[in-house]
Fold this sequence. Notes:
Elements: E1 6-12, H1 19-27, E2 34-40, H2 47-57, E3 61-64, H3 72-82, E4 87-90, E5 96-97, H4 101-111, E6 115-125, E7 131-135, E8 160-162, H5 163-168, H6 179-187, E9 192-204, H7 215-237, H8 246-259, H9 263-274, H10 278-295, H11 305-321, H12 323-342, H13 352-358, H14 369-382
Helix pairs in contact: 7-8, 7-10, 8-9, 9-10, 10-11, 10-12, 11-12
Amino acid sequence: MSSPLIDVILPVYNAESTLRVAVESILKQSFDGFRIFLIDDGSDDDSPAICEQLRRQDPRITYIANIQNRGLVTRLNDGLKLCTAPYIARMDADDISLSDRFQLQIDYLIANPHAVACSGSYQCINAKGDMFDIHIANNRKPKLRAVPAKPHFLLHPLLMMCREAVVSIGGYRNILHCEDADLYYRLSELGEIHNLTEILGQYRVHHASVSVVAEPNRIIQCLNSQSLALFAYQKTQDPSKKFLPEHISEQIVKTISSKKLSLGFALKEVQQVLKLRSKDYNWLTLAVFSKYLQESKYRGLTITAADFSLVITITKQVFTYQPRQYFSFLNNFNKWYTSCISRGVKNNYHLDPLSRFILTIEQIRNTTWGAFLYMVDAFLRKTGCRK
């Protein structure tokens, strides 16, 4: 086999039901100058046997067996060490690549040497393989000070990147549940990261997804995603600043996981570790809660009255110097609360006064900004949230 143009990293963990289909979708690519690294992460189902069968069937496949379960980031970096091709493609063991995926991506990266990575649009499928949605990717600019932050979004399992670029930034870092977002922040310093509008594959959404398995995972995901954005924003203001340090993220994750903290107490732990300025901590609080409320549209939500009391405390401070951030938070809360009503979820958190106020937002959209702020101020004084 001549030197491939693309090396494919495909981590495997207990994927016996979908692995063969995923690999076969790669083998059927119209572009054939590639090889595949199947890297098992200590699976205890039939995945290792399937990997071995696939290896024997096609010389383009290399299988790396591992007894221990070390996690996704470790296996991705193991794969990077094996890659020698100029381009590296990602693939997950439960997703499907359409036949022209590699051709479209390689054509773009070769034609645009300033680009260091690209992904694209995708279809969403359920555990049975039935399509239920289509996501057309865009190339919006990151909004790092929005509530919540809106970073680069490229679907990671469909990513193709320049090997030289990803190696130069040190590969993946252990920013739990946000290793892809962290990668994009760092890659974007070297060149363009781009989404193709063409549909490149099918992304499987199911209840075994790592972000929905346990409550601490969701809290960690929200905290890490917004902390990454905060540090990235600070870096835009001062290039000498660094991205979120890996060891700090690991320390936060360890604390949250061991103490099983609620979202509000987890934020207080984050502040003890990061020692943020009050303005940055206030933004982070609203951003994390807003991200959590957004996630609740797809998953169950666990939020306590104590958690929301923290938000009220922060909003008293944020309101005085950044009312638009507060308004953004109100909109996110409104979407969450109305979705709860539509699902018949009862309000157990004593949020009725704020909810009634938020639900009046639609009635005052044509009001001047100053008048709106006056109404917010009057409400906060009435409820005792603002002296």
